[in-house]
Amino acid sequence: MELIEKYFPELTPLQRDRFAALWELYATWNAKINVVSRKDFDQLYLRHVLHSLAIAKVCRFDDGARVLDVGCGGGFPSVPLAILFPGAHFTAADSIRKKITVVEGVSSSLELTNLTPCCARVETLPSRFDYVVSRAVTAMPEFVKWVWPKLGRGQRGSLPNGILYLKGGDLAEELGRTGLRWDLYDIRDFFDEEFFETKKVVYTPKK
Questions:
Q1: What own/partner pairs with CB < 8 Å and gap ≥ 24 does 145-154 have?
Q2: Which DSSP string corresponds to 124-141?
Q3: Is the dihedral of CA 198, 147, 67, 38 positive or negative?
Q4: Rounded Cα gap, residues 19 and 52, in angstroms
Q5: Distance between CA 16 and CA 21 in Å, rounded?
Q6: Which of 108, 179, 203, 205 could be stapled to 160 by a disulfide with Cβ–Cβ 3.0 to 4.6 Å?
Q7: In the chain, which residues have pLDDT < 70?
Q8: pTM, whole model, 2 decimals?
């Protein structure tokens, strides 16, 4: 929790309580359904919660913004972002039912009314969204093919509507194959911890 408060000192008491509750909630669920690697569970706040919140350092979501988390796994980045942006609405989608069961349990315990867990492939979702967020789900050309039709144009946050993707390593060749222009944000510019040294938020707008 100290990590979250270090970089987000403006949290409300309710947000602090919700972030603090994540440890016990994920520990309980992870004992039943392994959605967070057991070898790095001790680093939950660093490697999962704070990593998810790097997106918030790049783009602030307006109240009413519709955000889709593709391949959400156990709820990252959507659960931390839903806590931080209570006025935006998040859809957490994953095709693996047991992962969505965890997101449903965590979301229900936290009373996150602005998060809707959804067991589905993203291509089948009928809705349109302002932003798509994700964390290293697949290669970017494939990912863009999935989500581009789901994005609506406009601006419902501090950046125009688009994709915000958490990714690491050398991305030039992979991003180049999408045919889109990307902005790369080094997470080490926001967070001091060594874990973020090579990690980035990559962004492209829906024009």
A1: 146/70, 146/122, 147/68, 147/70, 147/122, 148/206, 150/68, 150/122, 150/125, 151/206, 152/128, 152/206, 153/206, 153/207, 154/130
A2: G----BSEEEEES-S-HH
A3: negative
A4: 12
A5: 9
A6: 205
A7: none
A8: 0.97
